Amino acid sequence: MNKKGLSILMRIRMRPNSAAKLSLSPLTQNELNQTQMNSQVNQSASSNTEREFELVRASMNSAISMNKTEVLDAVLNDFSAGYFNLDHENRRRLLLVLAKEYDLNRTQVRELIKQYLGLEPPSGENAQSSGLEEEGLLSAFYRTERNLRHALNPVYEVLFERLNTHPGGLKFLSSLRADILSILAEENIASLRALDSYLKEKLSTWLSPAALELHQITWDDPASLLEKIVAYEAVHPISNLLDLKRRLGVGRRCFGYLHPAISGEPLIFIEVALLKNVAQTIQEVLWDDPPILECEATCALFYSISSTQPGLSGINLGKFLIKRVITLVKRDMPHITTFATLSPIPGFMQWLLSKLASQSNLAEAEDMSQSSANGSGSTFWENILEPEEEKAIMDSSAGIAAGKSGMEVMLNLLTSTNYEWTNSAELLLVLKPPLMRLCARFLLQEKKRGKALDSVANFHLQNGAMMERINWMADRSEKGLRQSGGIMVNYVYRLENIEEYAQSYFSKGHIHASADLRRYVKPLEEHEERTD
Amino acid sequence: MNKKGLSILMRIRMRPNSAAKLSLSPLTQNELNQTQMNSQVNQSASSNTEREFELVRASMNSAISMNKTEVLDAVLNDFSAGYFNLDHENRRRLLLVLAKEYDLNRTQVRELIKQYLGLEPPSGENAQSSGLEEEGLLSAFYRTERNLRHALNPVYEVLFERLNTHPGGLKFLSSLRADILSILAEENIASLRALDSYLKEKLSTWLSPAALELHQITWDDPASLLEKIVAYEAVHPISNLLDLKRRLGVGRRCFGYLHPAISGEPLIFIEVALLKNVAQTIQEVLWDDPPILECEATCALFYSISSTQPGLSGINLGKFLIKRVITLVKRDMPHITTFATLSPIPGFMQWLLSKLASQSNLAEAEDMSQSSANGSGSTFWENILEPEEEKAIMDSSAGIAAGKSGMEVMLNLLTSTNYEWTNSAELLLVLKPPLMRLCARFLLQEKKRGKALDSVANFHLQNGAMMERINWMADRSEKGLRQSGGIMVNYVYRLENIEEYAQSYFSKGHIHASADLRRYVKPLEEHEERTD
């Protein structure tokens, strides 16, 4: 990078954790909204006049209904510029206009359905004896079928298609979808949800891996691109220039997927550390120096994967990226035999705290103090602590947290300000067994519609990884403690198993895990398949 | 290019005119078939056993029905390798299996239609008063609509989608479609035509200009790419290395569209000559040397545009290529102000000869010798020659060609062996007026479904060009004389008119032509709009 590039980079205002991340720690819909909508809305500080809205609406109409003319490019530019200038409420209004007034011509659909039902469909027998006349009838049938298929495409398809071939249009569509997702997170509007589902299908097609270029991001890349890495890295924020330089230097790799229509900014990127062993804490990855010699590495550790486009949420680019990076690294460095991640468990604490709270309440309401020994009493009540865990917690928490049961005490300990429990060697020792055990249970057994409840787990499992190990106090950052109780998990990718594991997870919800991990949940192993 | 590259290039067997060309001289369906099918079929000299066919059919079935597994890549490879190994007849059988057995689940479509018709579609009024329940009903409606849309997609879509994301798959799909077109040219099979139409839609989406890279092809490009230029240039075949080098050298440009998934081979390329004036003959472009200084050029002449993929027939990549090349050349060389073509008129002689033959026959049958003066007699009969043209032809053809009427004599002259008429200064003089006039009439007035009958004219007009000038004896090659009577035409592109002209041609069939050209057809100007 030349001097100018470097000086530009120095001026980057390091955004703290403001961008969207995916996968190793996927954003919830809500987090996504906040970041996306905010960052765009503040482009227009004041609210819009009705005239401004009508102008954008008119340019949207032209962009859809106009036949191909030289003016079209100008209209599309007007429309996207006008759109960005609208405030939240007017964007919402405009998107509803698009979803409701530009969907299907349902009169035409019904007419075509009538026509279609009146025609004889092709059958195996007819096909044998078909003469010229028969082929003519079949042609009419296929034509009507095609017309019906086309008629079922909403009118707004035209806008999406035109924007896709317009310079900057794909990026604009991605912003548009980010806004849509943010609106849908607040209110459920059927027509807008239908539009979102259609747009997502389109984006998936346009962003097929065949159209994406795998690029290794290095310190020689333009500052304008590196700036994006800094801005969008959200799993483990990049704190300064040295930090960035190390992540691109010896013993580290960074790969991104670029799309020709969205230049100078990867859609998704992954950060890799070359290590002797699978890391157990994020500190080893981010702060240990000097790095080992690359020729001594046996493990490629994926420690961060970030998506730059909130509007591409739900389009799994990560899977293809991981597969290609593994293949690439394997080819260049045959001495690397292990491909693993060090990942957060963003859903763990939320699940655990709500479990502890509801069980404590149940216990209190029914005064379970006597019957708690045998764990019966209420069908809904379950002591999620083992007897010896409960005893240890009650014994060691005197003076720090109160409560009638082990669960209540544990809840109070975990929610104490500044994560006080992490400063006491004794509490750490006492809490480790139940937290590790319950974390394994959460990862292996808690499901939603047959899939892992934790979003990061779901991401890696659907990509074909297996769960290898959970690591105690692996991330002591505020975020790490808040989301995962400081625990991190290693997922392992084995090229030879990726597709098989992905398949059995997809079809049967089967989670492949190491024996070590399964040992934590031994007693429940039998009902592993249960889902909620 | 290094020595090795050059020596490889030297060994290229220059294929005479065997590849498919588009646009400046688009291939007819029939020409396309011959080249495509032949070149592929001879990969398998002997015919296939039933077992070979069944193996490919089985791998096709796996490629469609298999869920995502590591094996899928292998299956797709098996399928494409197996397919290429099939002979013509077995490819035809396989494609029919694909078209008929993997189209729609029509039982499901009919069920969904029934469901769909039973649901209340959204209406403007309901939308106002919609509560939660209403949104729920609407969601169900949109879901059924989407399900119906999906159900109307044929099952073979899966195969196309999977091949598109498979390395080499896009190219394979293009070959597959070339075979389909070749079969459809021989026999009209409704199911296969429906498959073709579907595949064409898909290919159009995947090959949107946004996914294509404009590349200037130079002598520094790899031999493997230049080899393709030699092989696919079919408008004016490249005869030797010197010829190729000149086309990439001073005063010349060559641009191609590359797709990331089809590496090292442009999908379409265009050859440009930088000249002082719009060339009137192809000799000036191909053989005149030395070229002028580039800074003195005022005209960029497009003298050849060739498509390399017969399977992409009907997908207009040329339009975008021409527009982008004009923009690029304009930016780099502001002194270039004229963008024109020198194009063949491949349909002219075929049209003229059949016109002359049918009119001569009519004349003979009804013995029009007396009434020919006033041109009436039969509603179908028309003397396409002017009286003075007829007289000149009759006067000068004695001893060379016989005939009862000017038209019959002209027919005999034009079809004489070795184009003898072009060797006689007197005949050239006599034939020039009627040939030029009838050529202008053919270009300006002969239409099919409202579009120019000549395929090259139709290509440029739909791209937004205007007809500027026709040039006498502009291409004296055998092909030039056979197709166009040696006449070539200059189409002119003006960036500021491109979209307007394209639009008025598209919607009203309006052909923009220079006053010079229109003068040829003055008497008929009034009925210019008529079509047949």
Task: Give keywords.
9 strands, 532 residues, 23 helices, 7-stranded mixed sheet, 9% strand, two-stranded antiparallel sheet, disordered C terminus, alpha+beta, homodimer, globular
Overview of the molecule:
- The structure is a homodimer of 532-residue chains.
- The first copy, chain A, is built from 23 helices and nine strands.
- Mean pLDDT of chain A is 83; it is low at 1-45 and 524-532.
- Chain A has 532 residues and is α+β, with helices and mostly antiparallel strands.
- The radius of gyration of chain A is 27 Å and the shape is globular.
- In chain A, the strands form two sheets. In chain A, strands 1-2-3-4-5-9-8 form a seven-stranded mixed sheet. A two-stranded antiparallel sheet of chain A has the order 6-7.
- Chain A has helices at 3-10, 29-41, 50-65, 71-84, 88-101, 106-117, 124-128, 132-151, 156-164, 169-186, 190-206, 223-232, 241-247, 282-286, 318-332, 348-366, 387-396, 406-414, 425-445, 455-462, 478-484, 495-508, 515-519, and strands at 213-216, 252-258, 268-275, 299-307, 338-341, 447-448, 451-452, 466-471, 488-493.
- In chain A, β4, α15 (318-332) and β5 form a beta-alpha-beta unit.
- The relative contact order of chain A is 0.09.
- In chain A, α6 runs antiparallel to α8.
- At the A-B interface, α6, α8, α11 and α22 of A face α6, α8, α11 and α22 of B.
